[in-house]
Design a protein that fits this description.
This protein is of the alpha/beta class. Helix content is 46%, strand content 12%. A 6-stranded parallel β-sheet has the order 3-2-1-4-5-6, sandwiched between helices.
Length: 216
């Protein structure tokens, strides 16, 4: 994998945080001493935090307003990023090799800056990156277009042919690929379309520990 610079997604790519996001509804219900329905997390995962809290209130009879419940969820998320989040296995060694080889690295994430900064610090990763750009700051979600990658690229002062975008989600990988970036698909259990990820990306990383690379 030859590269001069790299742009990394954060959740599911750098840090093992997707299980927390995927179980946030159940965690909220359980924090109130109630038992969540078996399919609650699946029903909530496509919703915003507020919408998910409104559904939890409707289905489980949680006390408080959806706004109050959403505040509880964000407190739980913040606590996870400030205290419990960990890097994906083998990542620190991989980033250390890239840094030693002079590769400039940036984070492009949908997570808002305060939480992203906390997550990178808690996971011991902040020293590897030259900065962070968030989807909110870029004014465009990754589903909508590549602006967050484009801005990271400009800050890295690199070119697309010399830059690899690392992503764990198929929709984000497609966005980066369509914009002309080289791409590396990083396995995470939250993404079911692994065969399509493997087909689409120039590189496929099953695990940073193995550094399985499929190049074309």
């Amino acid at each position: 994998m030859r590269l001069q610079s790299a742009i990394f997604d954060m959740d599911g790519t750098l840090v093992d945080s997707m299980p927390m996001w995927r179980s946030r509804a159940s965690a909220l219900v359980q924090s109130h001493g109630l038992v969540p329905p078996p399919d609650l997390d699946k029903r909530v995962n496509a919703l915003s935090v507020w919408e998910g809290c409104a559904l939890c209130k409707e289905l489980c009879g949680l006390p408080g307003t959806p706004e109050e419940l959403a505040a509880e969820v964000w407190e739980q998320i913040a606590a996870f990023y400030h205290r419990d989040v960990r890097p994906k296995p083998g990542l620190v060694r991989f980033l250390s090799v890239l840094k030693m080889e002079g590769v400039w690295m940036y984070v492009a994430t949908a997570t808002d800056r305060p939480l992203a900064e906390a997550a990178l610090k808690t996971a011991g990763l902040e020293g590897f990156f030259r900065g962070i750009i968030t989807s909110r700051e870029a004014g465009q979600e990754k589903r909508e277009g590549p602006e967050v990658y484009e801005r990271a690229l400009r800050r890295l002062r690199s070119t697309k042919k010399d830059t690899v975008v690392f992503e764990d989600a198929l929709y984000a990988l497609r966005t980066a690929k369509a914009a002309g970036f080289r791409t590396a698909a990083v396995y995470d259990a939250s993404e079911p379309e692994q065969e399509e990820m493997r087909r689409l990306a120039e590189y496929y990383i099953q695990s940073y520990e193995e550094l399985t690379e499929v190049g074309r």
